[in-house]
Design the sequence.
């Protein structure tokens, strides 16, 4: 995923919050291969730390969670600072577990966020 519109669209989908990251998943109308996007805000750290988090997440997706991603879904992973110190095996397991869980979770009827209307 590359455009802001794609990231914002994923916010309307399923949402799984966790201690290390948040996953937002949206079912698209097509059955194309799954897409993912990473969001690491400046609050998390400087550019070096954000890039290290990004590399760790991409590798965890490539090795473990990518196989669990479902065709026709967009996934946005919003990272938190704890990913820097989290052991890679634990990060991979947690990411794969949460991606599998997005398939089972029903979209919740969330209240709109302030300012989103």
Sequence:
């Amino acid at each position: 995923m590359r455009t802001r519109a794609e990231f914002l669209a994923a916010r309307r989908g399923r949402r799984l919050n966790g201690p290390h990251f948040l996953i937002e998943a949206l079912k698209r109308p097509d059955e194309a291969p799954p897409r993912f996007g990473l969001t690491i805000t400046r609050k998390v750290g400087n550019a070096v730390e954000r890039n290290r988090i990004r590399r760790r997440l991409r590798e965890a997706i490539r090795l473990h969670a990518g196989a669990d991603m479902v065709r026709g879904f967009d996934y946005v992973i919003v990272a938190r600072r704890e990913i820097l110190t989290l052991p890679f095996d634990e990060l991979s397991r947690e990411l794969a577990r949460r991606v599998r869980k997005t398939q089972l979770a029903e979209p919740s009827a969330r209240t709109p966020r302030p300012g989103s209307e």
Observations:
- The first helix runs from residue 4 to 10.
- The domain at 4-103 is CATH 3.30.230.10 (Ribosomal Protein S5; domain 2).
